[in-house]
Write a structure and sequence with these properties.
- It contains 13 helices and 14 strands.
- Among the domains are: 43-199, no CATH class; 218-352, no CATH class.
- The radius of gyration is 27 Å and the shape is flat.
- The longest helix has 26 residues, at 363-388.
- A hairpin with a 2-residue loop joins strand 12 and strand 13 (302-303).
- 42% of the residues lie in helices and 18% in strands.
- This is CIC11C00000004679.
- Residues 1-17 form the signal peptide.
- It comes from Sungouiella intermedia.
Length: 430
């Protein structure tokens, strides 16, 4: 599959470089290819999370079913399932016989494409139990290390029942399978369903909803304005808001550069800087205060969000001794009920950068798909601008063709890099 695709990609560049063909005709053909037949490749790694069982043809069977579903939906993308399931296990060190590596006789799964297609049509997603798992991200600082292109992968684990764990940070789904599902030859179907309906849900959903590249925002500024009675805001509250927003900013940083700033104004003066009163496509403003609840709700027509201190349980014991001392410490360190405010702000930021609401908490998964589809949309926009221009820019066509070649040749594209490149090409067209 890779050979003809690579040849087709190289032919675009060779035609541009060496043959006396019409640049405009080449641009038209390339536009048609990008918008309807762009065979973008993506590796999906299939791994095991324990010793489990060995499947000699599981990945091949799942690949056949996945290809069938994509073909039926007329989706040109190529998802290559990479089989990383070990074919043997290392013998434990405390066993004193040879050979050191024991080759296992695998469980044979007899799969015919026709049978798997029928099975895929009759089973429903409700047969799989779905759970969300939350893990702490490996790094909160997006600029601390160079971006590493993330991998899509499925982790298989032998368990008592079939279930799915959706990772909240990595591009990963854990699928547990049971011996029962092996005997019924259902594992290939479940694997295909997990890939198509969960791991690739954002990518496949966006294929049918073309993005307007003019709506892409490369930079977003987020202002938090504390409209306080004394012109001061609690540092602990400010730190909590900043930590939450910087985590979100780090997650979307490959896609959109986000700058978070804090401002403090005296609410009693009933005025705020004009620049902070209105949201724009590239700026969001959030006003809050921790005092004057029920007295001040707006400033120059802008709503103020009241953030209240956390309520501690009433202390009814004798006001002396260790218990009272501990209560006073908790009182001094108590925070603010800012979770709802931060959540609303995060939702507004996601909406501003175009992240769709698909019921998926994994921001990284959404970001990868958004970058991919905005890149494709941007390529189409640049080619359309080329064709509409009075003077045809052959040099820009060469750059677009090179980028298309690069995308086709890769199995795991750096969409952040490609998107930035397309954005620069599009800016020069406007």
């Amino acid at each position: 599959m890779l050979f003809p695709i690579t040849v087709a990609a190289l032919s675009i560049w060779l035609a541009l470089a060496y043959f006396n063909s019409s640049d405009r005709k080449l641009a038209e053909d390339l536009l048609g290819y990008v918008t309807s037949s762009f065979a973008v490749r993506q590796d999906i790694h299939i791994r095991v999370g324990d010793l489990g069982l060995r499947f000699p043809d599981l990945v091949d069977a799942a690949q056949a079913q996945l290809n069938h579903r994509l073909k039926g939906a007329k989706i040109p993308y190529v998802y290559n399932l990479v089989d990383e399931i070990p074919k043997y296990v290392v013998r434990p060190r405390n066993i004193d016989f040879e050979p050191e590596e024991v080759i296992l006789t695998p469980v044979v799964i007899e799969t015919e494409v026709k049978d798997t297609e029928t099975r895929a049509e009759t089973k429903t997603e409700t047969e799989i139990e779905t759970t969300a798992i939350v893990k702490a991200p490996k790094s909160f600082n997006a600029k601390s290390t160079p971006r590493k292109v993330p991998e899509y992968y499925i982790e298989l684990v032998l368990a008592d029942k079939v279930a799915i764990w959706l990772d909240i940070h990595e591009l990963k789904v854990t699928l547990t399978y049971s011996l029962d599902s092996c005997h019924q030859n259902d594992v290939p179907f479940f694997l295909t369903q997990v890939i198509h309906d969960h791991l690739l849900k954002p990518d496949l959903s966006m294929f049918n909803n073309t993005l307007d590249f003019n709506l892409y925002i490369p930079k977003l500024k987020v202002n938090f304005i504390a409209a306080e009675e004394l012109g001061e805001t609690p540092e602990r509250l400010k730190s909590n808001i900043r930590a939450s927003m910087e985590l979100l900013a780090a997650q979307i940083s490959p896609y959109v550069e986000t700058c978070v700033e804090f401002h403090v104004i005296d609410v009693t003066k009933k005025r705020a800087p004009t620049a902070l009163l209105t949201n724009t496509t590239s700026t969001l403003n959030f006003f809050y205060l921790t005092s004057l609840a029920g007295i001040t709700n707006k400033i120059q027509g802008v709503d103020l969000y009241h953030i209240h201190p956390e309520e501690l349980e009433a202390f009814a014991e004798d006001p002396y001794g260790t218990a009272h001392s501990e209560h006073l410490k908790r009182e001094a360190l108590k925070g603010y009920e800012s979770k709802v405010f931060v959540k609303d702000a995060a939702l507004a930021v996601k909406a501003a950068v175009g992240l769709p609401d698909m019921g998926i908490d994994n921001v990284n998964l959404l970001v990868e798909s958004m970058m991919k589809h905005f890149t494709i949309s941007g390529l189409a926009a640049v080619l359309s601008d080329l064709l509409e221009a009075e003077t045809f820019d052959s040099d820009k066509l060469n750059k677009v063709a090179k980028l298309v070649d690069t995308i086709i040749a890769e199995n795991n594209n750096d969409w952040s890099k490609h998107l930035k490149c397309v954005h620069e090409l599009h800016k020069s067209s406007v």
